[in-house]
Amino acid sequence: MSADRITLALSKGRIYDETLPLLQAAGIEVLEHPERSRKLILPTNHPALNVVLVRASDVPTYVQYGGADLGVCGKDTPPPPPFQPLDLQIARCRMSVAVRADFDYVRAVRQGARIRVATKYVAIAREFFASKGVHVDLIKLYGSMELAPLTGLADAIVDLVSTGNTLKANQLVEVERIMDISSRLVVNQGALKVKRALLRPLLDAFAQATPQARAAQSAGAAPAQGALA
Ligand code: PRP
Description:
Largest sheet: 6 strands, mixed
Helix content: 25-40%
Bound molecules: 1-O-pyrophosphono-5-O-phosphono-alpha-D-ribofuranose
Low-confidence stretches: none
Mean pLDDT: 90
Strand order of the largest sheet: 2-3-1-4-11-5
Number of strands: 11
Strand content: 25-35%
């Protein structure tokens, strides 16, 4: 990690797409499009800033160990302390339980039946069902979770829902909302000290570009300060 450069870790897809306007608000343009390039390190028009593309679940790891100075990750990938995340309120979605339309989830839960649940988010699912006293067998999957109830692999899934279109297209229905999710900016604590002069303007710009800060500004409130620096 070079002292005169900063590296921002992003994952392709929703988080990348919704972080771009925040970067633009800070006057920053990414100079190559991730879908049109095989490069994993993308230059920007900011002479000291590069964007690196990593898997969403790897963002906290890159930031924690200094492979990146800062990164944007979903609340479903909790950063370990001593991170001080700033909620960017982007890539908003929810973590929910969904089942086939013909599966009587309420009855199964009421009867204390043992339910098979497929998910990528095993820890969240385990905690949620334990808190409700529902007996579950958890099956870890890495993608296409909607297939599990359709093929008989599981009774239910725990997955992210945004528009609900994926569930609908696969004849699944949302039966419980576990938590609301939005994405957070996490910063390497060493970089926060050593690269403060480079990071501070960026952190302030991010803080001022969140939907909540913009709404407050248009209502006449004082501009938001970068909560992290
Ligand atoms: C998520 C999730 C669903 C889909 C829901 O997948 O796993 O499949 O989005 O979105 P919708 O409610 O708007 O249809 P994502 O596209 O993030 O990719 P992933 O499968 O790699 O997690």
